[in-house]
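Before the break, one more example. Copy the sequence into your notebook; we will annotate it together after we see the structure.
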Amino acid sequence: MAPDAATLADLEIGYVTRGAQVVACDAARRLAVETHAAEHALESRQAAATRAARSPAARRKM
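Here is what the structure looks like once it is written out:
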């Protein structure tokens, strides 16, 4: 919060601080979204490999 008699420097510090907070929040959100997508891709690959291993064609090779 800015002081009652805020100077231009006070306001600039406030804007820069808020801008840094927004950038940090956006980076954290982006990391969370990328992690979520990577987890689901890994789960999908694992499920596909499990289905392929259980398929009749895979059993005939044994």
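The mean pLDDT is 91. Residues 8-54 form the longest helix (47 residues). Try to locate both features in your own notes.
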